[in-house]
Amino acid sequence: MNEPRDLPPPGARRAAPAAPRVRSARADRAAGPPAGPRVPPQAGPAPAGPGAPPGAVRVGPFAPGSAAEREPHLLTHDDTLDARNSHGAARPAGPGRAGPPGGRPVGPPPGRPGVPGPPPGQPGVPPGQRRVGAGRWTGSTNPGGRVPAGARVGPPTSPPGRPVGPGGPGGPPPYDPYDTGGGGGGDDGDGHGRGGRSGRVRRILMWTAGLAVVGPLLAFAIGWLVFEVPTPDDAATSQVATVAFADGSELAKIVPAGNVNRQKVSLSQVPRPVRYAVLAAEDRSFYSNPGFDPVGIARAVWNQLTGGRGGGSTITQQYIKVTTGQDQISLFRKYKEIVLAAKISKVRNKDQILEDYLNTIYFGRGAYGIQAAAQGYFGLNSEQLTESQGALLAGMIQSPSRWDPAKNPAKATERWNFVLDGMVAQNWLPKSERVALRFPDWIPPKPAAGGIPTDARGHLYTQVKGELESKGISEQELNQEGLVISTTVDPVMQKLAVDSAAKVLRGQPKNLRTALVSVDPRSGAILAYYGGENGVGLDYAQVLKQPGSSFKPFVMAAALERDPPIGLGERFDGSSPQTIAGQPVSNSEGVNCDNCSLKKAMTSSINTIFYQLAVDVGPSSVADAAHQAGIPADLLPTPTAGIALGDKEVHPIDMAAAFGTFAADGVYHKPHLITKVETADGRVLYDEGASRGEQRMSAQVARNVTESMVDVARSSGIGMTDGRAVAAKTGTVQSRIEGQNNDAWTVGYTPSVSTAVWVGTDDNTPIKNSGGRPVYGRMLPGSIWQQFMNGALRNKPKEPFSRLVPLGEPVSDEDDSSATEDADSDSDDENREDEDEDRDRGRRGRDSDEENRGNRFDGSGNPFDFGSDEN
């Protein structure tokens, strides 16, 4: 408890203490010991003497009669507490303080290094001041008891004539409640110790290392106790999958045959070469690994963390994935696979694991297990399989739906070779026997069943399934996960595509086939897909056919990309026939244009001009422009100038997507059907998200290509009934039979819809209409395209193309007007020639002509054969 202070007598005057002298540690060391005689040791602070307030103590040894003795520095009771340690006892003397009577040193206990005393020659501090800990002062001249950060002071100055005793070794710094520096060994000059900080770092590192070792072991132990070892009978049961239109309505239900087509066999019923074939394809270290591949797992973890897919699973892991039905992309699934793979390897031997695997794995064609696969592909039992047959089955395990030899014989052969070469490399098959083996004969798959549509929707289902696998979602998941697959297909447009094809081909020769694919140029979303009415037959939207003159826009793109560009107003000799680069070239039906602009040449489809243009820019440049637009890179091999007239094969879906790039001002979007895939329990296996396009060519080039085609539909009599802007190009492929044609196309677009239509036959025989005349691009395909586009765009806003900035020589007004006049003149001539045929066609199609009333021809049959014909 504090006692009342005695105040000094009235009128007494206290001498102002001198300001503390602050010095750096370097200056302290350089100064040397304090001058003057040494004083005897002193136990601690003495009473302040008469006149001092109660509780005050005298600090430092003061000589009798000195100014310091007359006006001692007063240390208040609060300051006294500050000078005590945490137990309330008086603090040991600081650096330079005298030791206790009798020579007992003041400082830390033996074995603990203290703070060294002041170096010899170090000057003291002003009278009445002493240092309390590093960087602190006592005394009224520094009320807070602090000095600036980093400052250092020396010990009190000894008065002259009074010796200073030797004292003991320096003790630790006095207790300072405001000092947050580390204690311990030494001091680094700023009052903070190094030992505490480094100790904390060491402890953190030790804990981290411990967790890195103990954590995985603990997780592994928990998984070992929790996860049950699966059996072949635990394989997931089949579930119905639903394919939905863009609006959520049902497109098709897929009811797989599922696990019914499964028959267990013992490992002894599987020939040893067939077992080796499976190991060569899927897990060559099966008999030596612990059930999982550390390198493959590390690769899978890395791929998943970086957004990739795959990583390599052992046969044991694949077996776990199949029997547990856990195929989602996650680190937890990989963790569970590792634990169960190790656990299974302890409770079952390798032969038992391989037997279970062979009885559960999916081989395609609805076949689960090796026995069902042997029957489905060869009509045999598993014990009758040969090395060659086993290699074919083993090679398909990774993607049985896509690599079925009935669907992709080239890939099936590639995998067959891969398996056999692997068997040789592992010494499981003599090289001499490998050379003698031949690709096996297989039986065709049975007709599709189980709810798969057999009408036009069947082709959509097939494309959806193929796209699922390309995104890493297998047919087995399709059969077992109860998937809900959302697509881009517009139900109204899909019905319109089917109806347009049926109406136009009604009454036409039975050997004619057609395909229609329509995409959104701004996203690549497939709006409608028609590959024929037989959903389990050949998909004509995927056939490879020559496009004829519908390929000319890519020649135009290559010319515009040339430096300097060849613009739409450039003029060429369009007379016919001509010999160009040693090849005779003629225009269809003898059309001539001695001095034509490129735009007019596109409208009238002048072969001689575009052939010459392809020679000028180079056939490879034309192929490059087509690849830029969206024609797949593996097509158009070794192009010649004939590429200008479409002598290289493409798919209808390729043409719709590539023309869509022109519509989108040079931005390519890969055509796709799937937007989202969810499992029955709500897991999202795939989400397309916002479509990201790729700027394949400059917007100016693409827009100029569009401009070259804006008069084609009107010239060919297949323009839009509402007069909206549309760019299009027709194409016809001549037959080897003089005056006949094999294939006919119309491809065209608005800013929001790009549609390609093909008409041909299964056997490349000449295509003729009901009147026996050759079919050209503006005829049957043009009618289907026009009916579909009119219906798809009905009541939709009229969207203009982007602003045109001409490249190279611009088109003159004379060129535009002459093109229109020529088209109208040609149309009138053709109308007169085909008047009788039109009347017949009108009677056949009057019932389906409502939406095209007012056109120059009815939409249910052939348009009049007017305008120039292209090849």
Show the helix and strand layout.
Layout: H1 25-31, E1 46-47, E2 57-58, H2 67-70, H3 77-82, E3 130-131, E4 137-138, H4 195-226, E5 241-244, E6 250-254, H5 272-282, H6 294-305, H7 315-324, H8 331-347, H9 350-358, H10 370-378, H11 387-395, H12 409-425, H13 431-436, H14 457-470, H15 475-480, E7 484-487, H16 491-505, E8 513-519, E9 526-530, H17 552-561, E10 571-574, E11 578-580, E12 583-585, E13 593-597, H18 598-604, H19 607-617, H20 619-629, H21 652-663, E14 667-668, E15 674-678, E16 684-687, E17 694-695, H22 699-708, H23 712-715, E18 727-734, E19 741-749, E20 754-760, H24 780-793, H25 813-833, H26 835-845
Parallel strand pairs: 5-7
Antiparallel strand pairs: 1-2, 3-4, 5-6, 7-15, 8-9, 8-20, 10-13, 11-12, 14-17, 15-16, 18-19, 19-20
Helix pairs in contact: 5-11, 5-12, 7-8, 7-9, 11-12, 16-24, 17-19, 17-20, 17-22, 18-25, 20-21
